[in-house]
From TrEMBL:
<keyword id="KW-0862">Zinc</keyword>
<dbReference type="InterPro" id="IPR013785">
    <property type="entry name" value="Aldolase_TIM"/>
</dbReference>
<feature type="binding site">
    <location>
        <position position="33"/>
    </location>
    <ligand>
        <name>a divalent metal cation</name>
    </ligand>
</feature>
<dbReference type="GO" id="GO:0005737">
    <property type="term" value="C:cytoplasm"/>
</dbReference>
<feature type="binding site">
    <location>
        <begin position="142"/>
        <end position="145"/>
    </location>
    <ligand>
        <name>substrate</name>
    </ligand>
</feature>
<feature type="active site" description="Proton acceptor">
    <location>
        <position position="35"/>
    </location>
</feature>
<feature type="binding site">
    <location>
        <position position="66"/>
    </location>
    <ligand>
        <name>substrate</name>
    </ligand>
</feature>
<protein>
    <recommendedName>
        <fullName>Ribulose-phosphate 3-epimerase</fullName>
        <ecNumber>5.1.3.1</ecNumber>
    </recommendedName>
</protein>
<feature type="binding site">
    <location>
        <begin position="175"/>
        <end position="177"/>
    </location>
    <ligand>
        <name>substrate</name>
    </ligand>
</feature>
<dbReference type="Pfam" id="PF00834">
    <property type="entry name" value="Ribul_P_3_epim"/>
</dbReference>
<feature type="binding site">
    <location>
        <position position="177"/>
    </location>
    <ligand>
        <name>substrate</name>
    </ligand>
</feature>
<feature type="active site" description="Proton donor">
    <location>
        <position position="175"/>
    </location>
</feature>
<comment type="similarity">
    <text>Belongs to the ribulose-phosphate 3-epimerase family.</text>
</comment>
<comment type="pathway">
    <text>Carbohydrate degradation.</text>
</comment>
<keyword id="KW-0413">Isomerase</keyword>
<keyword id="KW-0170">Cobalt</keyword>
<keyword id="KW-0119">Carbohydrate metabolism</keyword>
Length: 223
């Protein structure tokens, strides 16, 4: 499976969000990653339904919506209606995870589950066969621009081994501190979807930054 690039618009220029979405449409990005935060599950507040719906009006690529919120079940249908193609909930926020996964699929979206840095990969074992995507947070959720947590490589390897046995087509997504400095190592560990925010939107040439992440080879890796 060729890896996917999902630029996180949490790092976009909110005053010129339309222009950034149009730029992503014309880039080598595969998905558009939307981080939804409620100020309760994580110490920050980001996008709501109107912003996601506005993004969907211009986006030509699937919206990968990452819910960092408590009680996500209450809002799943609203996010689907707003334009989500992929909905990822947090393991730590769901009391009845299997039910939540099936609800997402019933809405016609790909179903994902995210785990925080302190959460063991083994806790996904009983649901991994039901998932389209598993997301490993490689920073503590809530803010962009954080330093990558090095232990994440081991967690990605664990998840890849589990997926190879039970769900080989699983998307393994990593979110937090992804850049051209660690992207090759992340792919070698077993990830196949890279979420990048500052590495793209803070770049002088954003299209080139996306292309560099998309076309990774040993020759483009920066140690």
């Amino acid at each position: 499976m060729n890896h996917l690039i999902a630029p996180s618009i949490l790092s976009a220029d909110f005053a010129h969000l339309k222009q950034d979405i149009l730029m992503l449409n014309n880039s080598e990005a595969d998905w558009i990653h939307v981080d939804v935060m409620d100020g309760v599950f994580v110490p920050n507040i980001s996008f709501g339904f109107p912003v996601i719906a506005a993004v969907k009006n211009y986006a030509l690529k699937p919206l990968d919506v990452h819910l960092m919120i408590t009680n996500p079940d209450r809002y799943l249908e609203d996010f689907q209606k707003a334009g989500a193609n992929v909905i990822t909930v947090h393991y730590e926020a769901c009391d009845h995870l299997d039910r939540t996964i099936h609800k997402i699929k019933e809405l016609g979206c790909k179903a994902g589950v995210a785990i925080n840095p302190h959460t063991p990969v083994s806790l996904l074992e009983n649901v991994i066969e039901e998932l389209d995507l598993a997301l490993i947070m490689t920073v503590n959720p809530g803010f962009g621009g954080q330093k990558f947590i090095a232990n994440s490589y081991h967690k990605i390897q664990q998840l890849r081994a589990m997926a190879d046995e039970k769900n080989p087509d699983l998307f393994i997504e990593v979110d937090g501190g992804v850049s051209n400095h660690n992207s090759l190592a992340l792919l070698k560990a077993g990830a196949n979807v890279l979420v990048a925010g500052n590495a793209i939107f803070a770049a002088e040439d954003q299209l080139h930054a996306i292309a560099e992440l998309k076309n990774i080879s040993p020759d483009t890796f920066h140690a």
